[in-house]
Amino acid sequence: GAVVSQHPSWVICKSGTSVKIECRSLDFQATTMFWYRQFPKQSLMLMATSNEGSKATYEQGVEKDKFLINHASLTLSTLTVTSAHPEDSSFYICSARDVRAYEQYFGPGTRLTVT
Amino acid sequence: TQLLEQSPQFLSIQEGENLTVYCNSSSVFSSLQWYRQEPGEGPVLLVTVVTGGEVKKLKRLTFQFGDARKDSSLHITAAQPGDTGLYLCAGAEATGANNLFFGTGTRLTVIP
Q1: Which among B33, B44, B99 is the nearest to A49, CB-wise?
Q2: Cβ atoms of B80 and B95 closer than 8 Å
Q3: Residue A32: which of B98, B102, B103 has the nearest Cβ?
Q4: pLDDT digit string (tens) for A37-91?
């Protein structure tokens, strides 16, 4: 149980285009999902907290107009990187918190490369 | 932002050796989790500790939560190459709190 999927697992796009990443909790409901960014050999950096049915809460320094988050249902959150630039290239990981427990369960990550 | 410092940052040991990874903070956490992450994958939850002084064992891994709930340790006995990965601790400030604060990470390499 407690499986979180992400799609796509990797994506290459051209500078200036937008990319959407999906995060799904497959066997549990998650009122809250989280989006992280991870640079090579570093720990996870929280970007935003996504709440079902309401606006996402962004961490300081994260541009909400650039990283659009939508949490349309209890099992799906999406992150759209708008007008992507090479510096947005990174490993993006989502997690979902089971409403009944403490733990967060992570997706397998999406590697974004902007050329 | 709460800071969780992990030490060591990097650790390279021979197969069969023992090791301990530390996770320290000046803040009190209601629960603390340990994850292991392999390259190109998301972190996988290993354990959650919630009570000060709690010790949990997972095969060759022993996790301890400090009495004051500010620190934790992960001890691996007889390390194997399959233990190689990035180990992350993460703390929740309050019961039911959404945010997890992640530690700085410890990259472990076990040499066959």
Answers
A1: B99
A2: no
A3: B98
A4: 998 878 889 999 988 888 899 999 999 999 999 988 889 999 999 999 999 999 9
pLDDT tens digit sequence for B57-85: 999 999 999 999 999 999 999 999 999 99
Does the pLDDT value for residue B15 go beyond 80? Answer: yes
Count of Cβ atoms closer than 10 Å to residue B66 Cβ = 20
Exposure of A34 by Cβ count < 10 A (0-12 exposed, 13-18 middle, 19+ buried)?
buried
Own/partner pairs, B93-100, CB within 8 angstroms, 24+ separation: B93/B2, B93/B27, B93/B28, B93/B29, B93/B30, B94/B30, B95/A102, B95/B30, B95/B31, B97/B30, B98/A32, B98/A34, B98/A49, B98/A97, B99/A34, B99/A46, B99/A49, B100/A34, B100/A46, B100/A104, B100/B33
| CA of A26 vs chain B CAs: smallest distance (Å) | 15
Helix (H, G, I), strand (E, B) or coil at A26: coil
At residue B97 the predicted structure's pLDDT band, cuts being 50, 70 and 90, is low
| Among B61, B56, B52, B103, CA closest to B82 | B61
Of A18, A57, A23, A42, nearest in space to A90 by CA: A42
d(CA B33, CA B89): 6
* DSSP 3-state of B41: coil
Q: Does residue A21 have a pLDDT over 80? A: yes
Block residue for tokens 């990259």:
B107
